[in-house]
Amino acid sequence: MPQQKDIVKIAIQMPGAYPQLIQLDQKKPLSAVIKEVCDGWNLPGSENYALQYADGVQMYITESNRLDIKNGCILRLTKAPGRCAEDLFKGIQSSDAGVRCDSLKELASVSTDVTFAQEFISRDGHLLLVKIVEDSNESNVIMTHTLTGFMELMDHGIVSWENLSSVFIKKIAGFVNAKSTDASIQQVCLDILESMVLSSHSLFLQVKQEITMERLIAHLQVTNQQIQTKAMALLMALLQTAGDLDRKDMFDFLTKKNVRQYIYKNIIHSSGSVQDEMAHYLYVLQSVTLNLQEPRMRTPLDCCSQEQRDILHGLRQAAFETESENSLSHERRRSLCAKEFRKLGFSNNSNPGQDLSRTPPGLLALDTMYYFATRYPDAYSRFVLENSSREDKHECPFARSSIQLTLILCEILRIGEPPSETGSDYHPIFFSQDRLMEELFCVCIQLLNKTWKEMRATQEDFDKVMQVVREQITRTLSSKPTSLELFKNKVNALNYSEILKLRQTERLHQEETLAPPVLELKERLKPELLELIRQQRLNRLCQGTMFRKISSRRRQDKLWYCRLSPNHKMLHYGDVEEDTENPPIETLQEKIPVADIKGLLTGKDCPHMKENKGKQNKEVLDLAFSITYDVEEYSLNFIAPSRTDFCLWTDGLSVLLGREMSSESMRSELEILLSMEIKLRLLDLENVPIPDNAPVVPKPPSNFNFCYDFSQTEQ
């Protein structure tokens, strides 16, 4: 007695007969099931019949796929695949053109089933189709059915494409190259050629030899969207299979003929599945083309290459008008070069090639820098000279920035990544701009300099600036600009303040979408974390900070130190020497009781800023703060060494005065702590043992020889 799970209730149809409702026993051989069905309709020779699905993909039922049959399925009793293959094999060879046409039409339909395909190919049926194509004596309708059936048979991978004769390949290519060939024939032939190209390199070479690029481009310009799509697919297959040299030649040809621009404009007018397919091909074309840069990206600079050394020195000479170097001694010339390479922004000024040893971006960074210097010499000189002449630690290093920017562009444009089979995310700007990578670099390196100034960045802020620039580029490209000029306008409008506004808006939106329990948890955690920040600020004030005095002549020649007493009741301060580090509190002669402090002033409200009104730059204003004491008749004036110190001291003094902290540093730290704490609280720690004690810190290593000495690169 079969188990219930082995029984499937199905219906079986046959033309001209009432359906049979049976309980299919999956343990019973399929041949026995078919015999029972045939007996139910009094049909002899059950071995000549088979079952196949009546709906959807009408696939034959075999022992290997019978378990896919579900309750309620409708099957159909039909000719066995072997018998069907034999009948069609004979029909294709009939002297009657009508019989041949009907047989080939049916073949094109049933060849999608792998079981039938195996039977037909075992009779060398595919060779029969090849002969029909090679003879080319049939009508367009018969030829279309022949080619369609052949394509369906080959798609199963039973027979290798490499077994095809050169005569057959020439015939297929001839159909594509001919100007008056039937569109249905050309459509299938383009499909066949694409499969050939993707199957082996030898077939790629044959197809490339037979198909002219001009004719393939002509197919992209017809009104038949199916022909356009198939031609695009073949073009992408040729580009993907070609070697770097062939691929570059093909791309140069496409650029010369403005094919990229035409293809992009054409997709706007396509619709439905054709548009989706074309979008994928546009993505592939973009990916394959940009990946032409990959060899340069993967290759480090060769210090022995005279050509590469000449380019490096060309960058230096284009930026600085130097005296005749030939008249200088070797040591003098070497010293001059090192000085100018340092101004140019190289970390290793004595051997700048070392900066380009990292891959990626490798030599691609040198290429982009050189392109910028030669294509836009005025902008290049302005960038370098503007930053090399600064002495306030706010210079933007051109070389270091260029190398990192090139890497960022490689990552955004996915250079070095093979195109995915389903990708469709392309950049319209690619189809309107030659040398996209280089031109984007030229726009973005100037954007980087602009953003650097907006952020008032120093070398310590380098990574932060690069993150903002990456965000500016990705946000602008996501808006799908269609030209370089449009990209330039949009990315420059997206300044640092706009980025901060967008981040804030997105953060608020993210908070609004949080579940109420999470928002409640966040509010509960805030007081505890704010107290943690308050304690950190007070501890920092207890450690103290070195400040500079700015005289009326703005000479920064005097130092003084200020720190809070451990009991938080007294501010101690006093003058110190240049080399003093963390002076003891007893050595600071002056002091102010915290209880006497009446107010905290910042920026232009400070007394020492009012005294020099109109003479202080914005940087100093942003670092200035004062405390007033003794009925506000006296003040102690500060110029913080950095924005970080400004935030720490103004927050700490606000805590001492019983006020709320308000610096951007406090808001950022609170957000980070809240995010970390919420993530920790929401972790699924069920069945995860948490130790009561912190893990033991390992002993320090016996030596620190593995550390890199950065001081060597500064010399």
TrEMBL record:
InterPro entries: ARM-like, ARM-type_fold, ELMO_ARM, ELMO_dom, ELMO_domain-containing, PH-like_dom_sf, PH_domain. Keywords: Apoptosis, Phagocytosis, SH3-binding. GO terms for biological process: actin filament organization; apoptotic process; cell motility; glomerulus development; phagocytosis; regulation of vasculogenesis. It comes from the Eukaryota. One of its GO terms (molecular function) is SH3 domain binding. The keyword Cytoplasm does not apply. Residues 307-477 form the ELMO domain. The keyword Isomerase does not apply. PANTHER family: ENGULFMENT AND CELL MOTILITY, ENGULFMENT AND CELL MOTILITY PROTEIN 3. Involved in cytoskeletal rearrangements required for phagocytosis of apoptotic cells and cell motility. Acts in association with DOCK1 and CRK. Was initially proposed to be required in complex with DOCK1 to activate Rac Rho small GTPases. May enhance the guanine nucleotide exchange factor (GEF) activity of DOCK1. This is Engulfment and cell motility 3. The gene is ELMO3.
